[in-house]
Amino acid sequence: MRRAKSGDAEFIQRIEQSSFNGIVHSIFNKTINLKCLNDGELYTIASSKIDNGPNTLLIDINSFREVDLALNDKVNAEKKVLSLTNKLAITVERAEKWESNLPDYPDYSEKLSTNLVKMKHYIHSQGKAGGMKSDTASKNVFVKEMSRLLNERSRALVYELSNNRVSNALQSAAGLIGLGPGLTPSGDDFLVGYISTLHLPNCPCHVFKELGEQIVKMAKPLTNEISYMALKKASIGSVRESLIHLLDSLVNGTENEMLQSLKNVLEIGSSSGTDIALGIVSGIETNLKVGGRTWL
Description:
Helix content is 44%, strand content 16%.
């Protein structure tokens, strides 16, 4: 029996109420994904070395390769225990419940603007290339063209939404869905970061928050289920804990606090963290523009 250390409050509640019935969807070293047959969503069981996130439960385990799980193994909840056939049982008793709460957008943007400039410089020098960040050393024509398209369409999204042309912005966003390398394509990761900034309470772009839901409606046939779920959750302002820490330190923190949070995000995946961080940069820039401010 494994004990959950923490997890998404609604996921834990489902297990407590014995209302989870599903199958194993995918298996990785540090995470496994479950498909819930009640609501069709993906849920994640992760090593406690991973951060909290939507639909995620953290347990003490080094690697899921240690467990003899197979795709489509049955999963069900009963008496506060999530059982994956007879191979893995997880109790949520005394697990810490986590919720995604985004920080308020500031009344005054001086600190935000200063931190944003520092964030952009750090990503430029330390971010991982190959997705949204161009790999200037690559001689691969396909890689270069992919980066060009990603950057062209992301800049168009910022420009169109900043000028209140929502339908044009949606078209630019559609061109990013499923585009780029990685298990979660770079364009999707960028959109997760971007959409999250539209949900910051009191932000200028809060009027555009439904853009995320419109993106999700288009996304299902255009990308994989794992990436789709990240977009779906971001569209209601629900993102990983590390992204919330980055947004909070960007808005309220010192430069050092912001850079430490940024470093943690940049460690996500191969280029996923960089792609998400660049989405956050573009989203904050859009907020500053819509709010009648400028950025460097």
